[in-house]
């Protein structure tokens, strides 16, 4: 019974049955001279192969859609009416084979989504009352402890609370190399433990896991239409009725019904209709396998036109973990510890992004920072002003010092310039309007940053622009090491927005890469907003136009190269489809192309555009290339600075 059910549901059952009847018809009429039984068998073949086509055409008409199925149905029924049974059987048989092949190959282009769904684990082992209990992955509660053993799939998103192990995260980030996991590290549902034993506290289960969000995003993206596809859909809505009208006029003028019916078959725009969506599905699927989530066909097309990439510095080109490197003392009444203490006390109540390295350095050196300042006044883009033990303490950049009346202090300016020239971010400390010192903070440049810029240029990006709130000197030092084309420094969040708008006004298609917090306005305005390291951020997965699941800059040029390849395939497919239709129509009008030959060529063109799109599923060796020898993260070392503990 199960075998019969599988056969009736198989995509190949109808073409096989129709093909067998056609062979029997040829045998009956050709070998045994039984014309009537041969005709009956041929009509039966046309009926078996064509009944689903007719049903589909009727349903489409009910929705006020005139599609390919209607053209084939009219042609096949017309051929039977004029007793051209072989043509009717051939058209429906070839159409049925083409449909089965399309279904099979389209399923192949959606393989990335199928693979993602396949890795979703069904069960989990949780620790309840000291006992190991196997439950459905959907039944795990947030906060429960899940056991992940060697070789098992991680069933939930969570945080490691005990144990050490290696996790292969290819299903999330596209990176095949296992990642070592220790206490406090995140793990994601669908990944595989390749060694060790982990206890994981569940933070996301079921539809709230990163894997579920990725699957949802890929489903939506593969169904979303590109602008070109929307245009082709509108074209098809006018083209198909136009072909039917042309066939009617041609039949009335020539009094040749066969010619009119043949024109209906030849004019089927099947390859044209499928040329765009199959490329989009394949391109987005390829990206998903590599940990690159693209929001939809429209964003894929836009990404292929990117010619300017704007990047933030801190956390994008650099590691985003700045450390205190220098403490320069101005004057003789204070020492290094005094300056560090003042800076730490002022920053204790601040949300300034560089407050953390100052506080960490103070703690590491045993500097006591007790309580909060009496008053804290953040100055966006400049620093912080605090009241500490009744004194006004300002910690920030040159712009803040200007507001404090210290714009022309030679020692202060000299110290800040030397730090900036060495790639440090200098912050001056002033007490009651008197400069007392300067601290320097440095971040490590990502090892792949320079390679990313080179690959972006190779991928067709004309300019890579740094948009940063840091000083011009620091930004220039980083840009020189990385190979950035243009630097725009000292920018507030609204300034970055204006910078993106200015680039767009110049006619550029702009991609913005940032951390999604301070850069949120610029990310929203850019033609393509790119979120990096989105594996741990559900918001980034849902909102970014392109989400790079792994925190790897090299995925950005890979994403742009993939978009360009996909759009190139789309154009090739449209060209193949148009050339096929025009050639066949000319063949019908001038003679030589029969209904069966036309349908055969038509189906071959459909398969050609699908096969062309499937090339996108192959791994792009250039895009996947990694640095042959990953350099040690480059720290911005000073060239002419005294040791950390030495006074100025």
Task: Give a written overview of the molecule.
With 648 residues, this protein is an alpha+beta fold. Among the domains are: 120-211, Calcium-transporting ATPase, cytoplasmic transduction domain A (Distorted Sandwich), CATH 2.70.150.10; 323-442, Calcium-transporting ATPase, cytoplasmic domain N (3-Layer(aba) Sandwich); 564-624. The protein contains 25 helices and 22 strands. Strands 1, 2, 3, 4, 5, 6 and 7 form a 7-stranded antiparallel β-sheet that branches. A 7-stranded mixed β-sheet has the order 8-21-20-19-9-17-18, with helices on both faces. The protein has a 6-stranded antiparallel β-sheet with strand order 10-15-14-13-12-11. Strand 11 (375-379) and strand 12 (383-388) form a beta hairpin. The model is unreliable at 621-648 (pLDDT under 50). It is a multi-pass membrane protein.
Tell me the layout of helices and strands:
Layout: H1 2-9, H2 13-31, H3 35-62, H4 68-81, H5 85-109, H6 111-119, E1 123-128, E2 131-136, E3 145-148, E4 157-168, H7 170-173, E5 179-181, E6 186-187, E7 192-204, H8 210-223, H9 227-254, H10 257-266, H11 270-289, E8 292-294, H12 297-304, E9 308-311, H13 313-317, E10 323-329, H14 336-347, H15 355-364, E11 375-379, E12 383-388, E13 391-396, H16 398-403, H17 410-421, E14 425-431, E15 434-442, E16 444-445, H18 449-458, E17 463-467, H19 472-482, E18 486-488, H20 493-505, E19 510-514, H21 520-525, E20 528-532, H22 538-543, E21 546-548, H23 555-589, H24 595-614, H25 621-624, E22 634-635
Parallel strand pairs: 9-17, 9-19, 17-18, 19-20, 20-21
Antiparallel strand pairs: 1-2, 1-3, 3-7, 4-5, 4-6, 4-7, 8-21, 10-15, 11-12, 12-13, 13-14, 14-15, 16-22
């Amino acid at each position: 019974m199960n075998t019969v059910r599988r056969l009736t549901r198989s995509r190949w059952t109808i073409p096989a049955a129709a093909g067998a009847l056609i062979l029997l018809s040829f045998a009956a009429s050709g070998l045994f001279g039984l014309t009537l039984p041969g005709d009956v068998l041929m009509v039966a073949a046309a009926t078996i192969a064509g009944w689903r086509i007719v049903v589909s055409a009727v349903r489409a008409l009910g929705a006020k859609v005139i599609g390919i199925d209607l053209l084939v149905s009219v042609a096949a029924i017309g051929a039977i009416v004029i007793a051209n049974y072989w043509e009717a059987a051939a058209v429906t048989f070839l159409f049925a084979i083409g449909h089965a092949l399309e279904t099979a190959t389209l399923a192949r282009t959606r393989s990335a989504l199928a693979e993602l769904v396949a890795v979703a684990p069904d069960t989990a082992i949780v620790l309840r009352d000291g006992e190991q209990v196997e439950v459905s992955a959907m039944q795990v509660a947030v906060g429960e402890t899940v056991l992940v053993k060697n070789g098992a799939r991680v069933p939930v998103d969570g945080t490691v609370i005990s144990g050490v192990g290696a996790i292969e995260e290819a299903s999330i980030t596209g990176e095949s190399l296992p990642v070592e996991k220790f206490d406090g590290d995140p793990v994601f549902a669908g990944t595989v433990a390749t060694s060790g034993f982990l206890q994981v506290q569940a933070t996301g289960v079921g539809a709230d896991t990163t894997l579920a969000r990725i699957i949802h995003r890929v489903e939506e993206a593969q169904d979303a239409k590109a602008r070109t596809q929307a245009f082709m859909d509108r074209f098809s809505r006018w083209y198909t009725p136009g072909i039917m009208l042309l066939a009617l006029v041609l039949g009335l003028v020539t009094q040749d019904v066969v010619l009119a019916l043949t024109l209906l078959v030849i004019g089927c725009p099947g390859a044209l209709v499928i040329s765009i969506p199959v490329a989009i599905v394949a391109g987005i699927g390829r990206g998903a396998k590599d940990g690159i989530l693209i929001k939809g066909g429209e964003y894929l097309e836009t990404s292929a036109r990117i010619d300017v990439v704007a990047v933030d510095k801190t956390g994008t080109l650099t590691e985003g973990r700045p450390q205190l490197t220098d403490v320069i003392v101005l004057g003789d009444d204070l020492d290094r510890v005094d300056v560090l203490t003042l800076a730490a006390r002022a920053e204790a109540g601040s949300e300034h992004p560089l407050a953390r390295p100052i506080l960490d350095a103070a703690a590491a050196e045993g500097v006591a920072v007790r309580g909060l300042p009496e008053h804290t006044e953040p100055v966006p883009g400049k620093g912080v002003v605090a009241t500490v033990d009744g004194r006004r303490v300002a910690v920030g950049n040159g712009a803040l010092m200007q507001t404090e009346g210290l714009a022309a202090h030679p020692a202060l300016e000299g110290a800040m310039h030397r730090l900036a020239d060495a790639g440090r971010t200098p912050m001056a400390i002033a007490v009651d309007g008197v400069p007392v010192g300067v601290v320097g903070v440095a971040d490590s440049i990502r090892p792949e940053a320079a390679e990313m810029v080179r690959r972006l240029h190779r991928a067709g990006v004309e300019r890579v622009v740094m948009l940063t709130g840091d000083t011009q000197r620091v930004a220039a030092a980083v840009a020189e090491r990385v190979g950035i084309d243009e630097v725009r420094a000292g920018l507030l969040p609204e300034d970055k927005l204006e910078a993106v708008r200015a680039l767009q006004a110049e006619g550029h298609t702009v991609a913005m890469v940032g951390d999604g917090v301070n850069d949120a306005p610029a990310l929203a305005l850019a033609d393509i907003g790119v979120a990096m390291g989105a594996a741990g951020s559900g918001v980034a997965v849902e909102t970014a136009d392109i989400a790079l699941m792994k925190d790897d800059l090299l995925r950005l040029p890979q994403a742009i190269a993939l978009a360009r390849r996909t759009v190139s395939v789309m154009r090739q497919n449209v060209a193949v489809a148009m050339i096929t239709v025009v050639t066949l129509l000319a063949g019908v009008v001038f003679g030589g192309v029969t209904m069966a030959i036309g349908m055969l060529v038509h189906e071959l063109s459909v398969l050609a555009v699908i096969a062309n799109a499937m090339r996108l599923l192959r791994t792009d060796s250039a895009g996947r290339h990694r640095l042959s020898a990953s350099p040690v993260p480059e720290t911005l070392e000073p060239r002419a600075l005294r040791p950390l503990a030495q006074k100025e």
